[in-house]
């Protein structure tokens, strides 16, 4: 896994279901932080994944593309064709029930082909729409296509920080396709041994890009992870704060 730690600045996110003392304790060696992130706002993340997290009493972060919200055919690619995207009502429901809503940019544009001003417009537009439609002061960001730089060399992480967001997802491990609970459990054990921050990334739960062959594997993994000593499950913005505290 590429190690690019994300220092954070700006807004202090809400602490969700864990106390501040608990979060700071998570930085100790031999423990790990696990964050579950979902990209593109696909509808089955709401209908399938969100109930699993609620049932387990664990948080997750959903990175939303404002321009696609509510679109029944949100994606045009072969893999994602006719994959419906969740509505603002669904987003508000998740936010009201302990899930973090993050930004994945307004248009899911390829920032690597855009200059600083164009990228900034796209980031700001999504912040504005998330606020207006869901009342969310979004603090977390996942760069579309995980782009790190614009065509003029703009550092996207630095830009996101300048805009007052808490951080830009620095690395991720895909969870989808043929992933199993056992494989995810193993990844958590490895992260724990290294005192690492493990960030899972999921797109489709039942259809669309890299969809799970058996979504119930995620539920089985969550049942396991919530009972693990030394494993803190935090949403992205909370984990980004620890990352800064650890100076990594
Ligand atoms: Zn995406």
Key attributes of the depicted protein:
248 residues, alpha/beta, TIM Barrel, 6-stranded parallel β-sheet, two-stranded parallel ribbon, 36% helix, binds zinc ion
Q: Please, could you describe this protein's structure?
A:
Helix 2 (43-56) runs parallel beside helix 7 (216-225) and helix 6 runs parallel beside helix 7 (216-225). Helix 5 links the parallel strand 4 (140-141) and strand 5. It is built from eight helices and eight strands. Mean pLDDT is 87; it is low at 1-27. It has one domain: Glycoside hydrolase/deacetylase (TIM Barrel, Alpha-Beta Barrel), CATH 3.20.20.370. Helices cover 36% and strands 12% of the residues. The chain has helices at residues 20-25, 43-56, 88-96, 116-134, 156-162, 181-194, 216-225, 236-245; strands spanning 32-39, 61-64, 100-103, 140-141, 167-168, 173-174, 197-202, 231-233. The strands form two sheets. Strands 1, 2, 3, 6, 7 and 8 form a six-stranded parallel β-sheet that branches. The protein has a two-stranded parallel sheet with strand order 4-5. The chain is of the alpha/beta class and 248 residues long. Bound molecules: zinc ion (ZN). Residues 39-40, 104, 108, 144 line the site of zinc ion.
């Amino acid at each position: 896994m590429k190690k690019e730690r994300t220092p954070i600045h700006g807004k202090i996110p809400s602490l969700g279901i864990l106390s501040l003392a608990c979060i700071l304790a998570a930085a100790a060696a031999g423990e790990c932080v696990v964050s579950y992130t979902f990209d593109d706002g696909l509808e089955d993340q709401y209908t399938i994944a969100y109930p699993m997290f609620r049932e387990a009493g664990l948080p997750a972060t959903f990175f939303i593309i404002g321009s696609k919200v509510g679109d029944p055919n949100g994606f045009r690619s072969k893999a994602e064709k006719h994959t419906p995207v969740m509505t603002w009502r669904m987003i508000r429901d998740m936010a009201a029930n302990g899930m973090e809503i993050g930004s994945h940019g307004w248009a899911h544009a390829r920032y690597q082909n855009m200059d600083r001003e164009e990228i900034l417009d796209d980031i700001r537009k999504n912040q504005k729409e998330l606020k207006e439609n869901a009342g969310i002061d979004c603090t977390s960001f996942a760069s579309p296509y995980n782009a790190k730089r614009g065509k003029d060399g703009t550092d996207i992480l630095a830009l996101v920080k300048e805009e007052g967001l808490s951080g830009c997802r620095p690395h991720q491990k895909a969870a989808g396709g043929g992933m199993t609970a056992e494989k995810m459990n193993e990844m958590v054990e490895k992260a724990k041994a290294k005192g690492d921050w493990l960030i899972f990334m999921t797109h489709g739960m039942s259809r669309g890009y890299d969809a799970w062959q058996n979504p119930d594997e995620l539920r089985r993994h969550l049942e396991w992870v919530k009972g693990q000593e030394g494993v803190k499950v935090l949403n992205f913005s909370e984990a980004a704060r620890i990352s800064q505290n650890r100076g990594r």
